[in-house]
Every structure is written in structure tokens, then in C-alpha cells.
Amino acid sequence: MSGRSILKRIDWLSVFIYLALVLIGWINIYSSTFIDEQSSIFDIGTRYGKQLFFIGVSLVSIIIILALEVNFYERFSSIFYLISMMSLLGLFVFGKTIAGATSWYDLGFFNLQPSELAKVATALALAKYLSDIQTDIKRRKDQLYALLIILIPAILIIPQPDPGSALVFFALIFVIFREGLPLFYLAIILGLILIFVITLMFGTIWLIIGLALLTILLFGLKKKSFKIPIIPLSLISVAIILFSLSVNFVFNNVFEQRHRDRFSLWLRLEKDPKKLEQIRKTIGYNTYQSEKAIESGGFFGKGFLEGTRTKGDFVPEQDTDYIFSTVGEEWGFIGTGTVILLFTILFLRLIYLAERQKNAFSRMYGYGVISVLLIHYFINIGMVIGILPTIGIPLPFFSYGGSGLLFFTILLFIFLRLDTNRLKESF
């Protein structure tokens, strides 16, 4: 396919939203790191200057991605996956430790985070495996292999330690559900999460009481013709109780104190006002200051470079994980609403593009892209406004970070390149 034909077929709405998010993100990085003595936006010694450099690198990568043949990505997906797994293993020997996590390679001018590459490679490898004619997702063996593709990078990333990045890979499970994995697996996952939260908030005793009341209600309201499977119901109840009992053990003996404090803050587990205030000033400090920064912005915001909390460095990591708080303070509800609207339109557009693919690999990879971007967006915004615990993952295309911007760009534009090969009618 010629370059002119690719430019005609590429989804320009997605490209426009990508460019808008990158531009708005850079403006807020500039604002959150600007010092009066600095003048040139091209100064590589500044964070906004370095981010501008990586925006240029990302734009060059887009040209390369669009120039390669569509079949290239499917054909070499397994090789990409193996290379990315080797790069994760190499961190245990050659990795650079930053903020307590050995997650980077020191390449001199910048630090490369291979977990970002692994997200792209895993999405490609999973799409390749699921689209293989010999794969039947209804078979347990194929389900296990698909799960292993997701688990391997997560297992390699957790010991760095970087649980936030590891969590992102589990979002790819939704690709498997889209392709036919029975929904009862999803029900089990959601059920375990619910039991975990209920146990932490109310304890195992109240969970057992709740189960007993539900059982009584079930027997009381059932029709005479309907037979309740007693043995399976009993086994499920026992499993729920055993899992609930294990939650307290894991929470108190496996989780570190900082993790327990974050859950205590998130679920309001700590009842002592003094201890809760202490947690907010330590573990919850970032979120507390972020909430205050967004709240102070009001409807219209304080204006570009006018954020007092931003200028006062009240919010740590404000150009990376907490960049959204800069938007809230300086641009107000109008600014945050615009960013959320752009992301929403992008996600809806990508879902549409994925559904119109005739090629199974392209469709599955498209949903992999959506899953990775969506969980980053949901968790990042959630922790900045205080409805989710602090995990520490960036906002796609927005937060400061060369590796993140580059590989998010690659992740997205590989799919847009695959989409140029589709034959379905666009709207």
C-alpha cells in the first residue's frame, strides 16, 4: 500500500485526538516544571524540553510504523514478545533503581522502561495466539496458554517491585472475554474482589451472616418446582468463607505497611481520627494535595502558570502520575472535562475501529490497545481524585516520561496501521 493510500485510509479522528492529548499534556508538563530562570522550550536539561524531544521521537516512530507492511506486526509478534521478556529479565542484572524500583535501563541520555515495551509486545502476542486457526478459547488448554501470555510479564514485573505496571497486563484478560471466554470466569474474578473488599470493611463474621441471610432468602422465595443444588451451594459457601479467612492473613502478613495504609485510607478502614490524619499526611499526602489542587481550580481554573499549589510544589510527581491535578488547578472543570471528553471519544472510536476489522488479529489487537489505555486512564484519574488507592501509573500520552509516550504511541499507531488494511465502510 502506497504512502498516499495509507494517509487516505488512516483514521484521522484518532490521530487528531492523540495529537490534542499530547499537546495538552506537554503544556501542563511545562506549567508544572517551569522555573522563571528557564527560557527556551527546547532546553533538553528541563523536563518539558526532554518531553518535547520524545514527542519528536514519537512522531518519527509513527512514520516508521505506517511505512511497514501490515503483515509485519502479526508475523513477528512472537519475536517481539520474546525480546520484551528478555528485556524484563535483564533488569535483574543490569537494571537501574529509581524510587525503589529496578524498572529502568540507563541509556545515558534517558532511562528506558522495558515494561512499556512489554505492553505492546504482549498485546501483539495475545492477538496472534487467539487469532491462530488452531486456538479454541473454549478449550481449557488454550485458555491456560492465553493466560500465561499475560501472566509471564506480570510475574517478571512484580519483583522490581512495580505492581502498578503488572496490574495493567491483567486488563488484557478482557480481550479473551471478547473472543469467547465464558463469563463465569469474570463473575469469579469480580466475586473475589467483592469478597476481599467486604472482608476488609466488615470482617469475616459479617460476611458469614450475610451468606446465611442470602441462603434463607433463596430458600424462602424459591418456587416449589425449582430444586436448589445443595452440595454445589455448600461448596461455594465454604470456598467463600475460606477465601475470606485468607484475606485477613494476607492483608496483615503479606502486604507491607504502606500497602495496608493505602487500603485503610481508600476503604476508610482506620477509625481512629488521629491515625487516619497521620496516614493522610504520609501515604495519602499525594492524593490529599491533588484533591485540594483540583478543588482550588473551580470551574474556570486559575489560569496558565497561575496554579499556586502547582508553583509551590505541593503535589509530588505532579508532572507524571499526578499531571491531572495541574489541569484541574489551572484549567478548572472546563479543562478536566475537556481531557475526559477527549479520552472518551478516543475509546469509543477505537471500539468502533476494532469491531469493523475483518481480520481477527487486527480486531483482537485493537481490543488489547483499548484495554491497556483504558486501565491506565481509569486508575490514574481515579487515584488523582481519591476514589482509588495510589498505584503509580501514568496517564497515556499526557504524563511526563519518554518511554511511556513512545510506547503508548507505538501501541496506538500499530492498530491504526492495521486499520488502514480494513475493507469495511467507515462512518
Topology:
Blueprint: H1 3-9, H2 12-33, H3 47-67, H4 71-75, H5 77-94, E1 96-98, E2 101-106, E3 111-112, H6 114-131, H7 140-157, H8 163-170, H9 173-178, H10 183-202, H11 204-221, H12 230-253, H13 257-266, H14 273-281, H15 285-297, H16 308-311, H17 323-355, H18 360-384, H19 402-419
Antiparallel strand pairs: 1-2, 2-3
Protein name: Rod shape-determining protein RodA
InterPro entries: FtsW/RodA
Membrane topology: Multi-pass membrane protein
What structural class is derived from the secondary structure elements?
mainly alpha
* Helix content percent band: 55-70%
The helix/strand order is HHHHHEEEHHHHHHHHHHHHHH
Taking strands numbered 1, 2, ... along the chain, how are they ordered across the largest sheet? 1-2-3
Cα end-to-end separation: 22 Å
How many structural units, i.e. domains?
A: 2
- Measured on Cα atoms, how large is the radius of gyration? 24 Å
Number of strands: 3
Number of helices: 19
Would you tell me the overall average pLDDT? 84
Cα shape: globular
Low-confidence segments: 423-427
Could you describe the largest sheet, including whether it forms a barrel? Answer: 3 strands, antiparallel
Bin the strand percentage: under 5%
